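User: Structure tokens for both sequences below?

Assistant:
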Amino acid sequence: RAYSMLARADFSVIRPDIFFDKKYLKYPGWTLNDKEAVVRTAALKAFLRPCQSGSYDENVMDGVAEKFATRFADCTLDVDTSVQESALELLLFLARAGLLDSIQDEETWNQINLRALDTETTQTVRKLALEFIIEQIGAFDDDVADTDANAVERLNQMAGWVCHTLGAGDIP
């Protein structure tokens, strides 16, 4: 099943018009729930590979992100850290491409963000989750100049997020 998903990823790069059609999306969607971690990882890579190669239609990927965002977020809590890492790589790509902007579910966002503070996972998962958080903080936007004042603002916003998260509420 893992080899099938990786082959599907290769075909998705060649013919995204076919393999990102609704009737074909159900297969990698199903394998996100497979009992074997290697298959779940391959399914996530089947979604990620066309994105990394640049061979995707933004409108189609927006639909994919909207349909599977919750499931991708669930994969960040998988028992296998390679699945967690692959899920965060995919979610980070989608966030950077602006394909998660339509997702309004705070629970999904929090589930992903909290991986940055999880001591029970790998450094890679925590790093990817932190990058995911940074994508959401306005002070880190590319168009913001690198000045001392902006660096302080970035730290303040990041510290504010950590305090809010650890304190389960707003902390002045």
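Moving on to the next sequence.
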Amino acid sequence: MNYEKVSVYINEADQWQNRPLYLELLDMLKKQSVLKGIIFRGVAGFPWGESAKPSLFHRNKKLSLVVQFIDSVDGIDALLPELKKMVPHHFILRKPIEIINWHE
């Protein structure tokens, strides 16, 4: 079976139906029975020409999140239309991968 990894670049302030977008994305991925999913929180970055740096005293809501998941090519094909609807103005990257080791 062929697998792919998808990375979706969003930020913490993004919303979908009045909920944090990253939580909605995770819920959608679980409902679609995606193989594996994770969220990474950026500590610094430069989204769209801006500079976002963390502060020790307050949280910057503009820091990037990367929602990353792995599934079969067919599984990703099936959920991509919904994903594109949820994140129409963000980067979505897709690439083939080889799974070297897998323990459930």
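User: Anything stand out in the second?

Assistant: The chain has one domain: 3-93.
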